[in-house]
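Extended Data, panel c. Modelled sequence:
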Amino acid sequence: MILIIGGSFQGKEEFAEAMFSQGEKPRWTDGGNASLEEMLEGKFVRNFHLFVERALRGQAEADLSRLAEQMMEGRPERVVTADETGCGIVPLDPKLRVIREETGRLLCRMARQADQVWRVTCGLGQRIQ
């Protein structure tokens, strides 16, 4: 799996397409509205952090203790983008803090298992693993 992280609106999708789509326009699965099955089938997954948030709010079915492994199992060539959640102001709302912390922990597990990890800022990617 290839994991691409970075701040909101930093060009993660465009970077992923340029680097890993082999010249074809990829079909993106969006974590903001996809089911678990769609997430596990998609080769290009964007907004993974939104899927995790939906799962933590009970709006999507997923076992978060197994999600990192599940994302690796089906498609090892999968490209996943997610917003970094550990930067910025810590939310006052306790539920938002839990969402932020759990998303960060899950992304850490995914990064440890990924073949490549990239951080994108201003559209420029820097490989960190």
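The two ends are 12 Å apart (CA to CA). This feature is highlighted in the accompanying rendering.
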